[in-house]
Amino acid sequence: MKGRASRRDKKRLERIQETGAFLTVRPSRRDGTELERDEFRDAVLLRMGLVPKNLPKTCDGCGATFTVEHALTCKTGGLVVMRHDDCRDEFGDIASKATTPSRVTTEPLIHYGGNEPVTRQANGASNT
Fold it and tell me: Where is region (Disordered) located (predicted)?
C-alpha cells in the first residue's frame, strides 16, 4: 500500500504508527484522556487522511484560507497556541505538585489595545 501512496499519504502512514495510543487508552476524566464525541471523530478522520466536518472557511487568527495543515501550523490562530498552553498548564500542574501551588504562576496575557499584535512581554522584553 505504501508503494503506491502519494508522498503526503506515506508521511501520514508513517506518523500514525506511533500516534494511535489514544485509541487504546481507557477514557478517564481524572487522567485527562476523555475525548468529546467531536474530538474523537475529528482525530479518527485526521488519522485516516480525511478532512473533519464543519471547518471554518478562514482562519480566525490571520484570515488565511483554513485547511487542516494551516490549523496545525498557524502561529496566529488557535491550535498552535492551544497546544502550547496545554503543555504550559500541564508542566505548571506538575511543578506545583513538586513545590507548592503558590510558587507556580502563569503570567497573564497583556493586551495593549486595538488589534495590534502583542509585541512586549509583561517584563517589557520584546517578543521578537
Answer: 98-128
pTM, two decimal places: 0.55
The per-residue pLDDT for range 99-125, each reduced to its tens digit, is 887 888 887 777 776 665 554 455 555
Domain that holds residue 61: 57-128
Distance in angstroms between the alpha carbons of the first and the last residue of the chain: 45
For residue 126, pLDDT beyond 60:
no
**What phi and psi values does residue 64 have, to the nearest 5 degrees?**
-75, 165
* Backbone conformation region of residue 73, classed left if phi is above 0, alpha if psi is from -120 to 50, else beta: alpha
pLDDT tens-digit series, residues 18-59: 878 888 888 888 887 888 899 899 888 988 888 898 888 998
- How far apart CA 47 and CA 116 sit, in angstroms, is 36
User: Do 47 and 90 sit in the same domain of this protein?
Assistant: no
Q: Please count the structural domains in the chain.
A: 2
